Amino acid sequence: MGVKVKATLGTEKYYTEVIAGENTLITDEPVDKGGGNKGFNPFEILATSLASCTAATLRVYIDRKGWDIPTINVEVDLENFPQTRTAQFCRIIDFGATEVSEEIKDRLFKIADACPVHKILTNNIEILTKI
């Protein structure tokens, strides 16, 4: 599945409008980094991609199985270590007040790893740039 987004940054530090199809979101930097804190910063957007894709992937599977799990919470903590050129995503999944058996949890753990964004982030990544 191909995706195309366009980010436009004018003169207001670091307020950026990002358009994907008919949808727009705002990214920015926190005030302490010179921005206006009017939107998610780029690292938050990256973590959001993993969290939202994981939740959606789990929802598809849970619904297909007919399980009564009304709430899926996915928290992602992203730590970037530029000195070692590594990043670590810590993903925590819970199902609110719903008790889930260990057998179902084990299955959902595997399904979470099948999320398309998870697969992209754990594969080799190549970035091609043209100016």
UniProtKB/TrEMBL annotation:
Which Gene3D superfamilies does the record match to this protein? 3.30.300.20
Q: What is this protein called?
A: OsmC family protein
Supply the source organism for this entry: Epilithonimonas ginsengisoli
Q: What is the lineage of its organism?
A: Bacteria, Pseudomonadati, Bacteroidota, Flavobacteriia, Flavobacteriales
